[in-house]
Amino acid sequence: MKCPSCAEEIVDDSRFCPHCGGRVHTKEGFGKGIYLMITAVGAVLTAIVILFVLIMIRKPDAALQEAASENVQGETSEAESEKNNGANSDVENANGAEVVDTAESTEQAEDTQTEEAELPKLLVTAPTDYLPIRISPGYGDDVITELYAGRYLLWDGEIVTKDGHDFYKVRVEDNGETGYAAADYCIPVDYRYDEALLSIVDVSDALYTYDEMVEDIERLCSDYTGLSYKTIGLSVDGRELYEVTLGAPDAPHHIFVQAAIHGREYMTAQLVMRMLEYYGANYECGSYQGDLYRDLFQNTAIHVVPMANPDGVTISQLGVDAMNHMEIGQLVYDCYMRDCGNLVLEEDLNGDMNWADYYKQPDYDRVAEGKTQIITFEEYQRIWKSNANGVDLNNNFDAGWAEIDLKQAPSYGNYKGGYAVSEPETQALVELATQREYDCFISYHSKGQLIYYDVNGNDEQTSERSYGLASTLEKLLKYEPVNTQRGYNVNLGGFSDWIQLGLHKPSVTIESGKHPCPLAISEFDAIWFRHRESWAMLCEMLF
């Protein structure tokens, strides 16, 4: 190329002429320089932009990674804690889903948590007869299926109230059928247990005898570390009275339970024995609200007198021929001769035929009413409530005893005894109830599907605490709480009456079952599934 100033030949792309020293400004050179400069600047800017974008992207990624790392560390810590507490990797959560392995990746753990949060609640059916599942809420004819006690339901939380009753929209777990079920017969379940583990206490026959109970107590306490027992006295006929302790005897909290204080209500003994077996068999693996049974019962021991009136139970089940002392047979027959004219077979509110006692109405004319059937001695023994002395133990405690207006002589029921706490069975219960500080007391009776929680003459604090106990149990049992202090005709002298008036402790009387006593074995499952988790629930409150 030539220099534009001196026209001498110069090397291509020269910036200055070697001959004249002039600056070379060619259009081609200028354009190419500009192009190079622009390219260079663009490259720099592009690099800056890319770097900025990468920084902005890495910041949220780093935050997520840090949060995820904290989440994994937290989950691993909880898993290690469960492992250190002896938690079984197969333990199920409150919804019945298996616990997730916390060693999985954070992404998998987050997905699982989301799924678990959306899982429907697990319910179990507990009707006395059967529970209809309907297309729509209510008591219409659009029945899809009928379920007996013990079927599992899945519930997403939808409740519909119709005609004053609540109905859940549910899905039957094993067949997927969907419909509405009456809420009163659907019990929430926190832990799904293995039915095969319960093989000791016989629940196939309602005739669960004292001898069977004693044998089962010894075997349960031998097989399971969470159970122990001792005798606390003798009955009138010489039968030992048992206290079975579930949990640590030296626990900081204690609950007192007694059952079968009325002879013919012997299914309550079968119930609490089944509960003892259930908690014993699931002591290490069972849980409630995330707390292991073992930990709950180390903190709260439950002291159970499963058969407070073994003589009365034996008379009701096997008759006076099973008594150790033959003179008891004569006493029972004398009671029969006094009572038979006042016992009238009539239909109760459930439509069942029941022997009603008209002893307070001596002028009642049964012939005029067309109710002439006289109870037989065999049937009379089956409805026996009292102990072997003919004393109704639940009227024998020192709680308004002097004012009780009942029968004046021994009977199958409603005779309060010669003086308060006159019987060896009531004496044993009083002594046991005063040996330590109990947080609350529960008495199991039949029938009515009610929870009695108050007593006439109660102080305000004890009344409120008893109501709190009844309300807590209502949530699980679905039994109606009843304040006996407010216009309900209930005699005093009962165990719960004495606990509240004498010891000023909260107590309730739970009336299970629907049909006349003795209850048929067909009612057991409904009662069992209502009560199964109730002790764990109470212990969890004290945990």
Principal-axis shape: globular
- Helix count from the secondary structure assignment: 13
Q: Which regions are unreliable across 5 or more consecutive residues at pLDDT < 50?
A: 18-41, 43-117
How much is the average pLDDT? 83
**How helix-rich are the residues, as a percent range?**
25-40%
Reported for the largest beta sheet, the result is: 8 strands, mixed
Helix-strand category = alpha+beta
Number of strands: 19
Strand order of the largest sheet: 8-9-13-10-16-19-17-18
Beta percentage is: 15-25%
Q: How widely separated are the two ends?
A: 99 Å
Rg estimate, integer Å: 38 Å
List keywords for this structure.
alpha+beta, 35% helix, eight-stranded mixed β-sheet, 543 residues
Explain what this protein looks like in three dimensions:
By secondary structure, the chain is of the alpha+beta class. Helices cover 35% and strands 19% of the residues. It contains 13 helices and 19 strands. The strands form five sheets. An eight-stranded mixed sheet has the order 8-9-13-10-16-19-17-18, with helices on both faces. Helix 3 (210-223) runs parallel beside helix 4, helix 4 crosses helix 12 and helix 5 (293-299) crosses helix 13. The chain is globular. The N and C termini lie far apart (99 Å). The model is unreliable at 18-41 and 43-117 (pLDDT under 50).
Topology:
Layout: H1 27-84, H2 106-117, E1 121-125, E2 131-134, E3 143-147, E4 152-162, E5 165-172, E6 178-182, E7 186-188, H3 210-223, E8 227-234, E9 240-246, E10 253-259, H4 267-281, E11 287-288, E12 291-292, H5 293-299, E13 300-305, H6 310-318, H7 327-339, E14 343-347, E15 353-357, H8 377-382, H9 424-433, E16 440-446, E17 450-452, H10 460-477, E18 480-482, H11 495-503, E19 507-512, H12 524-531, H13 534-542
Parallel strand pairs: 10-13, 10-16, 16-19, 17-18
Antiparallel strand pairs: 1-4, 1-7, 2-3, 4-5, 5-6, 8-9, 9-13, 11-12, 14-15, 17-19
